[in-house]
Specification:
The protein has 293 residues and is of the alpha/beta class. The protein has two domains: 189 residues, NAD(P)-binding Rossmann-like Domain (Rossmann fold, 3-Layer(aba) Sandwich), CATH 3.40.50; 81 residues, Alpha-Beta Complex (UDP-galactose 4-epimerase, domain 1), CATH 3.90.25. It has eleven helices and twelve strands. The protein has a seven-stranded parallel sheet with strand order 3-2-1-4-5-6-10, with helices on both faces. A three-stranded mixed sheet has the order 7-9-11. A two-stranded parallel sheet has the order 8-12. Helix 5 links the parallel strand 5 and strand 6. Helix 1 packs across helix 7 and helix 4 runs parallel beside helix 5. The chain is globular, with a radius of gyration of 18 Å. This is SDR family oxidoreductase. It comes from Streptomyces hoynatensis. InterPro entries: Epimerase_deHydtase, NAD(P)-bd_dom_sf, NAD(P)-dependent_oxidoreduct.
């Protein structure tokens, strides 16, 4: 399959590109900079220059492909307004890609987050979160999935709060960044809230499996660790960085503070049984041992 991918140089995207190329697929990847283009070419992908806001480039890439994986998301989300702009940009991009492939029965696979359900781990059957700081992402993804009835094999892989590789990435990576900045390995709330996690290479395998075989209109959970306590995550970060571990106000983490303070475990039982997905790479707490001071 010739796959068009956006976000192909990120933590998830670079692993997905390698997974696709290593399993007989070819890749056309969107690149917004010379550095990204060079990295993608070194990996073995063909490059299409443009960015997520360039809807003509997105349509062109989709038209040339047998399927699309949309992973790109804006990098500037340090304030509520910036986060809202990134969510809106992603929604417009998904709409453009979906309209280009409508009626073709080709796959369009996007990324979203695992939902949170009070009192239990969320499952693939739970609806996407459509409220809160990133609720617009859930609405955009649901709109895309609804196009399954109009000749689009639209699917979503729901990612946990931390997608990690060599101690970096996701919410745990943001905790580590904040610790370096403030001199404290801080955590919001009482620290017992749980975050799900997955290694980027395990997530990449699931993206390939969904692209190759999952039915239209479905959502899947790329969850290896159902839920690690945030205090345990902060404890490893503190030890690796040589910093004290303390509870801090959720405002320390900007627009992500309310999300960071939530208990949000997630299950992938259905995904594993239906697609035969088996995570094999290190857990989050083990991988954080690679964190460098």
């Amino acid at each position: 399959m010739h796959v068009f991918i956006t976000g192909g140089t990120g933590t998830i995207g670079s692993a997905v590109v390698a997974e696709l190329l290593g399993n007989g697929h070819t890749v056309l990847a969107l690149a917004r900079s010379d550095g990204s283009a060079q990295a993608l070419q070194r990996a073995g992908a063909t490059v299409l220059r443009g960015d997520l806001a360039d809807l003509d480039a997105l349509r062109s890439g989709a038209a040339q492909s047998d399927g699309v994986i949309s992973l790109a998301f804006g990098r500037d989300y340090g304030s509520p307004d910036a986060l809202a702009r990134a969510v809106a940009e992603e929604g417009a991009a998904l709409d453009a890609l979906g309209q280009e492939l409508l009626g073709s029965d080709r796959p369009l696979l996007t990324v979203s987050g695992t939902p949170w359900v009070p009192g239990r781990a969320s499952t693939e059957a739970d609806p996407p979160a459509t409220e809160g700081p990133v609720g617009g992402r859930g609405r955009s993804v649901q709109t895309l999935l609804d196009l399954a009835s109009r000749g689009l094999r639209s699917m979503a892989v729901r990612m946990p709060r931390t997608v990690h590789h060599e101690g970096r990435g996701g919410f745990a990576g943001l905790l580590a960044d904040a610790a370096r900045r403030t001199g404290v390995a801080g955590y919001p709330g009482d620290g017992t809230q749980r975050w799900p996690a997955v290694h980027a290479r395990d997530a990449a395998v699931l993206f390939r499996l969904v692209l190759e075989s999952a039915p239209a209109g479905t959502s899947w959970h790329a969850v290896a660790d159902e839920g690690d306590a945030v205090r345990d995550i902060a404890t490893v970060i503190g030890r690796r960085l040589g910093l004290p571990v303390e509870q801090v106000p959720q405002e320390t983490f900007g627009p992500f503070g309310p999300i960071f303070a939530m208990d949000q475990p997630a299950s992938s039982d259905h995904t594993r049984k239906a697609l035969g997905w088996r995570p094999t790479h290190p857990s989050l707490l083990d991988d954080l041992e690679n964190l460098q001071p």
